[in-house]
Amino acid sequence: MTAPPDPRDWLGRVERPSRYLGNEVNAVRKDLSTVDLVMALAYPDVYDVGMSNLGLQVLYHMLNGRPDVACERVYSPWVDYEAEMEARGLVLETLENRVPVRDLDILGISLPHELCYTNVVNLLRLSGIPLRAQEREGGRWPLILGGGSAAFACEPVAPFFDAILVGDGEVATGLIVDAVKVWKQGGGRDRVGLLRELSGIQGVYCPRFFRFHYASEKDPLTVSAIEPLLAGHPMVRKAIVDDLNAAYYPATAIVPNKEVVHDRLAVELLRGCNRGCRFCQAGYTYRPYRERTPARVMELVEQGLASTGFDEVTLLSLSSGDHSCLDGLAEGLAERLRPRQVALSMPSMRLESLSGRLMEAIRGVRPTGFTVAPEAGTERLRRVINKTMTDRLILDKVEEVFARGWGGIKLYFMIGLPTETDEDLLGIVRLAEAMGRTGRRYRRNATVTISTSTFVPKAHTPFQWEPQITMEETRRRQRVIREALREPRVIYKCHDARETWLEGVFSRGTRRLADFLARAVELGCRFDSWTERFDLGLWERAAAECGVDVAAHHAARPLEAVLPWDHIDSHVTKEFHLRELRRAHAEGGTPDCRWDACSACGLDRRRCAPEFVSPFDIPARPPAVVPPMAEVALRGREGARPATARPAARVRLGYERLADARFLGHLELQNILRRAARRAGLPVRASGGFHPLARIDMGPALPVGTESEAEYLDLELDQALAPEEVRRRLEGCLPLGMRVRSAEALAPGAASIQDAQEAVRYALRLEATVGDLGARVEAFLALETAPVLRRRGQKPARVVDVRASVESLEVVPWDPHHPHQHLDLWLATSPAGTARPAEVVALVAGAGVEARVRKLEVRWRCEGAGPAREALVAAAVVGGTVAELPPRVEAQGPAARTAGERVHFDHLRPQG
């Protein structure tokens, strides 16, 4: 007899199973029977990318703050997970309660950029939801709602959505939820009536109420007219949050179990940008400019750190240096973060706004990387794009960056900009090499990394009518830069020309591209922003089958043409963009209207000229003393911090990791435990070096998928605390499925967990019935040796004698109520190599038999005498009652459980 597999056991077979757990600290898991509406926010990329999206975090906590709504999360499953789903006939589910996505009331899908469009369609396909909105009108399907940066020119995906939110989401999302709730309570039948109601909310675009007319039946590109079908609704005006300081912002954030792209606490510093870079869509669509006060930013940072335990804070915006009192704010934050070993970072910095005070604040705990975006290699081309930085300013600021302790700098440039020549490309090389020579004056191994992306004309910008260079021309210009570079410490990276080719198709496309997109998904296109996953051949095949002329989509647009986004009002007028286009070709500048005259972009002047934050809003503090560059340069490696001589106390904690927590990897657990210690306010001793980390000594790594009731870690503390106080503080700071069970003080000189363990006991549940299991066990125990060849990645293979590690192996008596076969295993630990439970199962039951493994207890070495020995013995005792498990004897040694008290896995339930 073969028992049905556990529905989650197969997670151990996919890459990074921690992506799919949903058990993180600060995740919200509601009882769905207590709410009126269940919805999910989806990000069309893997968890690692989606968890770094600040907008989704804000909306997630805002909606879950309502007692009538449960809001959960969905991310695109990686290709291996998708293959497992399809092999098992599964549909996509939410993370928190594993609700089938097709059973939700609302599915909100973020539209961050054009290269995620295949994942958007695939999310619907994997959920079993009809792709096009018109196919969902007769059934009970969730409202498919879009939103995000790409919503301003979303026609290629518009047919897949019922509604799309354009602009700021904090207010409009709540109004949408209210309308859907009323509609659902009324029976939820008139879907068109609901969309008509939603269209009355500022910022909501319902594609069904706008009809596109084309120049010809076969032309997917040339729009002759956009006809509004709803009376009194000729255009969609974007939603705007006027007062950013009063807008909702969460006091917490979900703490990811695995490393994600931006693994830190993010606080939005300001929104909008008036700099007017002519290629930048966000610079126009995010207007007007709005700031948060320093006091509010500091409050959010303090709340966020207390609830997350991150060791880095980043202040996010399009241009952080524009904040009216950034220097004082950064210094105030640095003073508060430095004693806690928390770093401060500010991406999106403009060189003009860099000051010595700001650099000193950023390098407070450790330099967090420095990225600058000159965008163009010559002053002429910078005037064209309205980014008027001189070469002299760039080089002077870069020198100050190197002089103040940074060992490397990253520079972002764009190739293919309007009017660009090869001389502009060589200007990138000259600028980068000059920076490299400057850096070596302060550090021999200083590096300059230049990265180029290819210009893609974007909607709602002055360059929306400009052509895009071809894939072949992109590669030629990349070669010009690469072949001209001579400086050895200058590293060149460039964006994949194939991805830019595709982005250019969708960035200015019409809704007639929906068939092309759907066909590409059918052919297997996924994750097109991942270079290793992009398949140009599949896209060319889809284009040929659907009659899409890619070259036409990359061509210049007539200035008088109807553009596919003309019915979307970003509050910046088309007339303004035309004026800016003419100024670009005349190399004329448009100043920032915060400091100069109004540029008449179309925004209501009352909105785009807010009162700036007063510098006196910063909490009182002594004036900062900024060391001169010469003094900073002499510091050398002063940033490296020595570790303190001896900890004030060592505490050994015993903890369990059950249910989904068994899928966390060893390095992921280290991160989780460090952040838990920070949240708990434990005075954990920090390591030395440039990146101080909490000193946490963990036991041997368990294979992913192994449950454990007997995991241990040692904490080194700078302040003596009672072990029970340490355990109490950690309560509630760990993810679902993890719990601290014991805490004991260690005497000075006590052996590490690795050295102190003598043997480990496991319970093994076989996933297939094996005949003559008892005889097989006896035959294995009769062996003198049982060598296995163990391979791990690129490391040399080594031989491990599995039999030498096995102290005992028994078949657990059969229980008719629980048909799985169970084994009880004791493995001795050895520096020479310890067997793994899976290796024992393979040798006893056969290579094709899998087992679910649970670690039950540890036997400790009791060598020596005195306090160290007593501490080790005490640490072996597992304290506390496990309320979630069936009553049983707590283990204190190899013979603690009798045969009748052994654990059957079928009795176990997820914790929490």
Q: What does the main sheet amount to?
A: 8 strands, mixed
**Rough outline:** globular
The chain-level structural class is alpha/beta
Runs in which pLDDT lies below 50 for 5 or more consecutive residues are 612-643, 863-912
Query: Number of helical runs?
Result: 28
Radius of gyration: 30 Å
Beta-strand residue percentage: 15-25%
Task: Tell how many strands the DSSP assignment holds.
Answer: 29
Give helix % range. Answer: 25-40%
Described by its quaternary structure, the protein is single chain
Through-space gap between termini: 32 Å
The average pLDDT is: 87
Describe this structure in words.
Strand 7 and strand 8 (223-228) form a beta hairpin. Helix content is 29%, strand content 18%. Helix 4 crosses helix 16 and helix 12 (391-403) packs parallel to helix 13 (422-440). It has 28 helices and 29 strands. It has 912 residues and is of the alpha/beta class. The protein is globular. The longest helix has 19 residues, at 422-440. Strands 20, 21, 22, 23, 24, 27, 28 and 29 form an 8-stranded mixed β-sheet that branches. A 6-stranded mixed β-sheet has the order 2-1-3-4-5-6.
Q: Could you provide a short overview of the structure?
A:
The protein has 912 residues and is of the alpha/beta class.
Throw out a few tags for this protein.
912 residues; alpha/beta; eight-stranded mixed sheet; six-stranded mixed sheet; 28 helices; 29% helix; globular; disordered C terminus
